[in-house]
Amino acid sequence: MSAPLEIDSLRVRRAEREILRGVSFSVASRSLVALMGLSGSGKSTLLRSVAALEPFDGGTIRVSDVELKPGVRWPPRPDPLRERVGMVFQFHCLFEHLSALDNVCLAPCYVRREPPSDVRARALALLDQLGVGQRAAARPRELSGGEAQRVAIARALAMDPPLLLLDEPTASLDPARRRSLGESLAQLAASGRALLVTSHDDDFVRDFASEVLILADGEVVERGAPREVLNAPRHDATRTLLRGLAR
Amino acid sequence: MVVAVALAAGPVEAQSTPLRWGGDSEGGAPYIEADPQDPSRVQGFDVDIAELIAKELGRPAEFIQTAYASLDQSAARGDFDIALNGLEDTPARRATLAVTVPYYEFSEVLTVRAEDAQRFRSLEDLRGHRVATLGGTTAYELLLAAAREHGVVPISYDDDVHPYEDLLHARVDAVLLDNVIAERSMRRMPGLATQPEAIAVGHYVGILGPAQRQLRDRIDVILRAAMADGRLEAILRRWLVWNDRQPKLYERLAQGTYRAAPEVGESAGVVDSDSTGASRPSGQAMAWQYLPSLLSAAVTTLVLSCLSMAIAVGLGAVIATARVYGNRVLRALFTAYVEVIRGTPILLQLFVIYYGLASVVRLPAFIAALLGLGLNYAAYESEIYRGALLAVPRGQLEAARVLGLSNWQTLRLVRAPQAFRFALAPTTNDFVAMLKDSSLVSVLTVMELTKQTQIFATNLGSWVIPGALCAAMYLAMSLPLAQVARRLEARWSAPESL
Asked: Which pLDDT belongs to residue A197?
C-alpha cells in the first residue's frame, strides 16, 4: 500500500526561474505535514503541482497509486487523481451561486453520480462534524472567513480523498478560531487522512503538525518534529523565517 | 444667368432666393430619379414641373432630398417651400397642409403575374390572397377596405419597386398601385400584366406648409397656365405618362368642376380615391378606429422581439462558448461572424436575407425578420456572454477542476450560472433595444407597431395621437421587462435568499 503522497526530486521552472529544485518528501496517513517558508519559496507551487493545477518539469509525484508525469498540462478526464486528493484554497473559492450544502454536494452528485439523497445526508453530517451544520443553507458571501474555510474543507472531504491539501488555512482567522480549526484538522489526521498544509503560523504548526518542512530557494533546508525545528532552528533560512514571523 | 432668365420671363417680382422643393429621388423615374449622366442632379416629371414653377416665380429651383414618408411633416415644418413627388390629393393633406391644384390624374391599377391575368381581374377575385402596395397611400386604404369587404390580405411596402419583385417571386399575388408605377414596372420586369380597369382614380398635387396659402395660390395660377398652353402636356409626354385622362382633368379644372376631397367622388363604378375619406370621422374617433390595428401591430412587435431574442440568446451563448473553449479554427470563424455582423448595418442584413437570398430561398417576411434580428443580436449577445464567462474568477474554475468536474460540467454547473448574473443587466438592455429595433423589419413588409403608427399618422395628417399611443405601447412592453430584470437581480444579490 503506497503512501497518500510521495514526492521525489520535484522540479518546477517558470520562465528561466527555478521555483522548486529537487524537493523530496512523503506524507503518510494519520499525519499532518506543515510546509513553511518565506513568500515566494514555492509552497503554493508545490501544492498546485500535487493537485495537477500546474505542470511540473522534473521528478515524480505519486498520489496513492496515481503517478503524475512531468510536463502534462491537461491531465486526462475523468482524472483518477481527483478521488485521491482534495484541495482547500486560501481564499476558499466556494461556488458563489450555490449554498454551503450544494457546494459540498456538487462533486459527489455529478462526478460520482451518487444518489442525491445519500449525498445530502453525508454532506450535512460533514458540515456538522466541522461545526458549520447550521450554515448549510447560507450562500458563500454570507459566511464568515472561518465558516467559509470549514465549508471548503467539507467540500474537499465529500469526495473522501486520502490526501487533503490546505493552502494557508489559518491566514484569515483570529487566534481562537485558529485553535479550533487546528483541532479539527488534527482530528482529520487522527481519523486516518494525510494532510499537507502550508502555513505562516508557527504556533499552529507547533501545536498541530506532526512534521514541518522548511522551504527556501526551492529546496527543503530543514525538516523534523515542529518543536525541535522551530525552537532550535539550525538553518539560516529558518531563523530568518521565524524572525519575520515574530515581528 | 438665372437672374437674366427670371427677368426675361417677366414675373411680378424677381427674387433670387431659390424655390426649395422637396422630394425623394429613391422613388425613381418617372417622378424623380438621379440623373444617370450626373448623379448629383435629378430628373423626372416632378423635377420638370418644379423647374417650371420656379422659373415662373423667377427663382432658381433647389432640390431638397427628403424621405418620401417624411414629406408631409417636412412641408409642415417648412424644410422646403413645396413638395412635388407624385403626392396624392387626400383629405388628410387638405386638412393639414396647403395643397395645389392637381397636375396629374392617375388610376389605381391591379398588376398580377401574366399567367394569373384571367384569374385575378379585380380585388374580389383575390379573396385570401396577398395584395401589395406602398404603405400610407390611398391604395393601402383601398386594400384595407377590400380586406373587410373581399377578404384580401393587404401587405404594406416602404417603396414601390419591391412589391413588383415580390409579385414575380410569388410572395404576393397582386400589386395595387398608381398606373405610372405599374407601367414603369411592366417595362422593367417581364412576366407581369396590369388589368385595364381602374380600381380608383386619384390626383397628384404639390403640398406646402399650412401658412403658405399665398405662394400656393400663385403656383396654382402657374399650373393652370401651363395646362392651358400645353407646357404641362409637353412635360408629361416627355416622361411617357400622358394619357387621355389628363385633358379631361384640365377641362374640369378650367370649368371649376374638379371636386377636391372631401367632396363625394365620381360614379360609374369607379371610386374616386380622393373621396375615400368623404365621411371622415374626427381625430378622436379615428384613434379608436385604429386602436385594434395598433394593438395587433404591438403584438407582432412583442412576439417578433421575444422570438428573435430567444434566437439571439441561444446562438449568442453558443458563439461565446465556442470563442472561449473552441479551437483556433472555431474561434476565428465566430470572431469573423461577430465582426461582420457588428460592422454592417442591420438594415442591409435584413435586405440581404429577404431580397438578396430570394433567388435561393424564398423566406416569408416574418421568418426573414426573425432571422435577421436574431442573427444580428446574436453577435452582440455573444460578446456580452463571452465577457461574462471571462469575468468568472479563475479560482472558481480551479475549484471545479480539483473536484473532478469535466469541462462541460464546469461550464454548466459553475461558470455559466455565475456568468449569467453578470450578463443579465446588459441582456435586458438589449431586449429593450430589440423591441424598438424590430421596427426596422417594416422594410420587409412586416406590419409592426411603428409602421402601423406611421400609416395611422399619414392618414390622420398628425403625429400627436398616433405618436402618443405608439410610445405608450412601447413603454407598456419595455417597463415590465425592466421590472422583471430588476427583481431577478435583487433576488440573486439578496443575502437572505434560498
From this structure: 93
B416 in contact with chain A, both atoms CB, cutoff 8 A: no
Instruction: Report pLDDT digits (tens) over B9-30.
Output: 444 444 578 999 999 888 777 8
Put simply, the answer to whether A53 touches B398 (Cβ < 8 Å) is yes
> In the CATH hierarchy, which top-level class contains the domain B106-200?
alpha beta
Can you tell me the ipTM of this complex?
0.91
Whether B2-104+203-258 shares its CATH topology with B283-493 is answered: no
Residues of chain A with CATH 3.40.50.300: 5-84+161-246
Looking at the structure, give the CATH architecture of the domain made up of residues B2-104+203-258: 3-Layer(aba) Sandwich (3.40)
Render pLDDT for B369-388 as a digit per residue (tens, 0 to 9). 999 999 999 999 999 999 99
Please answer yes or no on whether B395 and A139 come within 8 Å at the CB atom: no
Give the model's confidence band at B157: pLDDT under 50 very low, under 70 low, under 90 confident, else very high.
confident
The pTM (predicted TM-score) of the whole model is: 0.75
pLDDT of B261 strictly over 70: no
Between chains, do A99 and B498 touch, taking CB under 8 Å as contact?
Answer: yes
In this complex, is the C-beta atom of B417 within 8 Å of any C-beta atom belonging to chain A?
yes
pLDDT(B415) > 50: yes
Task: Tell me whether residues B402 and A87 touch, CB distance under 8 A.
Answer: yes
Please give the CATH number for the structural domain made up of A5-84+161-246: 3.40.50.300
The pLDDT tens digits of the residues spanning B270-283 come to: 444 444 444 455 66
- Residue extents of the structural domains in chain B: 2-104+203-258, 106-200, 283-493
Instruction: Tell me which residue in B396, B404, B421 faces A82 most closely, judged by beta carbons.
Output: B404
Shortest distance between the Cα of B488 and any Cα of chain A, in A, equals 13
Under a CB-based contact definition with an 8 Å cutoff, are residues B146 and B140 in contact? no
Q: Choose which CATH entry (3.40.30.10, 1.10.3720.10, 2.60.40.10, 1.10.260.40) describes domain B283-493.
A: 1.10.3720.10
Does the beta-carbon distance from A159 to B417 stay under 8 Å?
no
